[in-house]
Structures are given as structure tokens and as C-alpha cells.
Amino acid sequence: MTGTPPPIARLRETPGLLGRFAVIGLVLGTMGGSFAYAGGWLSPGRLTPQRIVDALSARGGDPVGHRRNHSKGICFTGTFEANGAGARLSTAPVLAAGHYPVVGRFAIATGDPQAPEATGRVRSMAIRVTAPDGQEWRSGMNNPPVFAVSTPQAFYEQAVAARVDPGTGKPDPQALQRFVAAHLETAAYNQWARTAPWTASYAEESYNSLNAFRFVDAAGVHRAVRWSMRTTLPQAAFPDLRRILQPPRGRGRARGRHGACRGRCAVSAPAEGFAPLQRGLHWLMAALILAMLFIGVGM
């Protein structure tokens, strides 16, 4: 016999059906809420990558089509000659003894791709080392021994303070003073900026990684380390800032006035009890030389 189920049967089916709809609604609501949170709609004051990029873009120049930071730079190629010392710290193939190709870039910390290179107090060095199996190791390093700030929020506030005033074409000095007064952790960086020599070549600088990296050895032991690239050239102060870092036209610019150059690639581990991922502080450490980096041809 067929027909409409009796009312009691329909009532028995209703709770199960409502339960399924509730689960579906919960899943859709969770997904929608996640997208809204990621997009910043639920917390408009939250710091997001877009807000940082916008702040970096307001520091002068015309960065459209260029990086928003370290916009002015030159590229180079070279060779990472690993001595094998790093193999006991990490199973990474590029730390085994051998020669590995490198593509890199020197730059100054500015948002203006047309800025004179002599105006960049902070200089950077980025490298990409490629292993025979295609794996890539990348490191970004700056020449200060310590980063100016220790949190993304402070970095954002620093970028906002450096915003260029359209009327003067320069940052507001009072905004910069207020930022420094509110961020005492910048003292170590500011001391370096006042006293470190201005050098005539990217190759005369030593560079230090901003972040810690985790090495994992063959036994599975994890170690936090930081990269550094140490110059083999004397760091001579250059009195005339208008003349420093003005490369000749055409290829070979990374060679500078020294021809093909090289640096010692090292890693350092933090002292006992030191927070390995904390920026803005010096690490008290001894370094292990892992390789020589030979820079030959500018791009």
C-alpha cells in the first residue's frame, strides 16, 4: 500500500533532516567566517599584508611594477662552494661539499626604484642556491647586525612614520622622532646607523639574515640558526657619499671596483636560553663557516 506516510513517521524523520541541514549550515558558516576573517572584514583594524604593502608604497617614488621595498638593486650570478662543514647540522643537499649555482641581488632599503644608491643606509643581499636535484635554498640578509624592530606591528608603524610628505618630498621628521621614542628596541640599530662606515661597494659589506632557520640533521635534531655573509674585503669608510655605489653602465655592475668578489657564508646558533625567532636583538654566538660565495657576473 502506497501513499503519504502517516504523521508520526514524518515527525520521526524531521529531527534527522534538521540535523543534516544544521551540519551543512555550520560548515558553510565556518567557511564564510574564515574567509571574512582572512579578508579583514571582521577586524578592520587588524594588521594585514595589504596594509604593510600600502605603507611601504607611500614612502616616495613610483613603485608600480616594482618591489615595494628594496626597490632599487642589481642582480648577480655566482657559485656557492660548500666545504661540507654544514652536513653535520643539516641534510640539505647544498651543504654537502660541492659547487652550486647562485642567483642573487644586492639592493638598498627604499621604495623608490630610481633612488640614488648612495642614499640607502640599509643594504641587502638575497641569494638563491640550487641543488643538483632542483631544490632551492633562499636567504635574505641585511647589512645591519640587528634589525630595527622586533614585530610586524612595529615594522608597519616604522613604514608609516617614513611616509613621504607630498609638500616637502621627505618624511615628517617629527613622525620619525615619535616612532623612535615609542620603540626603544630601535636603539641598537640606530647606534649602528650612526657609527658604521658608509662603504664604496656592496662587496665591502657583511650581511645578516633577518629570520632564524631550522636545520635538521641526519638524527632528526632541530637547530635554529641564522645566516650571515661575511665580506673578505676591508671595510673602508668613504667620505663622499655622492660617489659611493655608483656602478658603471652595462653588465658586470655587481663586480664594483673590486672585480669578481667573494664572501664567507656562515651560520650561527643562539646562546643557551635565547629566543631563536626573536628579531631586534644580537645573538651571542660563534659562527661556523659553511661555504665561500663567489660572485662573478652582474645582471
Short précis:
The chain is of the alpha+beta class and 299 residues long. 23% of the residues lie in helices and 26% in strands.
Helix content: 10-25%
| Shape, principal axes of CA atoms | globular
- How much of the polypeptide forms β-strand, as a percent range? 25-35%
- Counting DSSP H or I runs of 4 or more residues, the number of helices is 5
Low-confidence stretches: 244-256, 276-281
If you average the pLDDT, what whole number results?
A: 79
| Major sheet details | 8 strands, antiparallel, barrel
For this structure, the quaternary state is single chain
Q: What order do the helices and strands follow?
A: HHEEEEHEEHHEEEEE
Spatial order of the strands in the main sheet? 1-2-3-4-7-9-10-11
Q: What is the number of strand segments?
A: 11
Give the helix/strand class: alpha+beta
Rg from alpha-carbon coordinates: 26 Å
Q: First CA to last CA: what distance?
A: 85 Å
3D architecture notes:
This protein has 299 residues and is of the alpha+beta class. The protein is built from 5 helices and 11 strands; from the N terminus they run ααββββαββααβββββ. It has helices at 7-38, 49-57, 152-161, 173-182, 187-195; strands at 72-82, 98-108, 123-130, 136-142, 164-165, 170-171, 207-209, 213-216, 222-231, 261-268, 287-298. The strands form 2 sheets. The chain has an 8-stranded antiparallel beta barrel. A two-stranded antiparallel sheet has the order 5-6. Residues 244-256 and 276-281 have low confidence and may be disordered.
Helix and strand arrangement:
Elements: H1 7-38, H2 49-57, E1 72-82, E2 98-108, E3 123-130, E4 136-142, H3 152-161, E5 164-165, E6 170-171, H4 173-182, H5 187-195, E7 207-209, E8 213-216, E9 222-231, E10 261-268, E11 287-298
Antiparallel strand pairs: 1-2, 1-11, 2-3, 3-4, 4-7, 5-6, 7-9, 8-9, 9-10, 10-11
Helix pairs in contact: 2-3
